[in-house]
Specification:
38% of the residues lie in helices and 16% in strands. It is of the alpha/beta class.
Length: 258
């Protein structure tokens, strides 16, 4: 989606898709969509637009630096890249585009960023929806990352990614190298989740090659606010593999938010 608008943030310009609210439904907290490790605005496949239509809420999805057609990152990522995104880019984006008290909707790495942002001091998150979040590093997840590397170097993953990203090599290696870095094995955000006080909906597939239900259970057992779990028979992308039940669950959760 190279024709999307972009906004200047510290670090460069990022692309975004901003779906306006249905003003007839009154003042509702906006939605901020945070994509997966190899994702972008376009790779939500319209999920943010469908949730906006179903709820009447403003929905904004953006591509992180090095994803989609946003600017490339100025530095190589470190094992704290999700913390950095939550602490710097997300609040800067919300300030630049007028997103107040957003509901954070994240998938995979984006789900972890959403959790970290909701746990941050001074966070104004109204709620959080996480699809296949990562709370710590699991051997099964690293196996999925290693398989993705083989698909990129030996299969057609690079060709497919080139349709959606300005520089697929930057997108892929900035994700894959960090996850397979020995220093990343100790990455664990469970101690930080207790600072989350807003409502959370956590959705996980039982056949996810990147993680088990232990991650959403960690959110349930650690966050201070109310947490709802939905476990589905699917893989890593519930919103694409089980779209009807996922959309219904997210819509119902949003309707119940205060």
């Amino acid at each position: 989606m190279p024709d999307l608008p972009s906004v200047e943030l510290p670090g460069g310009r990022i692309e975004y898709d901003d779906v306006p609210a249905d003003t007839a439904r009154g003042e509702l907290a906006p939605l901020l969509f945070l994509h997966e490790g190899l994702g972008s605005v376009g790779l939500w496949r319209g999920f943010h637009q469908r949730i906006a239509a179903a709820t009447g809420r403003r929905a904004l999805a953006y591509s992180r630096f090095g994803h989609g057609f946003s600017d490339l990152p100025r530095e190589k990522r470190t094992p704290r890249f999700m913390h950095d995104e939550a602490a710097t880019v997300v609040p800067a984006l919300c300030s630049a585009l007028g997103l107040e008290r957003p509901v954070l909707v994240g998938h995979s790495d984006g789900a972890s960023i959403a959790l970290l942002r909701a746990a941050a001091a001074g966070s104004d998150a109204t709620g959080v929806v996480v699809l296949a979040p990562h709370a710590f590093v699991e051997d099964v997840g690293l196996g999925g990352v290693e398989q993705a590397r083989r698909a990129y170097t030996e299969g057609d993953l690079r060709t497919r990614m080139a349709r959606h990203h300005r520089d697929p090599d930057v997108t892929f290696w900035n994700w894959n190298d960090v996850w397979l870095d020995d220093a990343f094995r100790d990455w664990d955000i469970r101690p930080e989740l207790s600072a989350i006080t807003c409502p959370v909906l956590a959705i996980q597939g039982t056949a996810d090659p990147y993680g088990t239900v232990a991650h959403v259970e960690a959110v349930r057992d650690t966050a201070t606010g109310p947490v709802e779990l939905l476990v589905l028979d699917c893989g890593h992308a519930p919103h694409l593999e089980r779209p009807d039940v996922t959309q219904r669950a997210v819509t119902d959760f949003l309707l119940r938010l205060p």
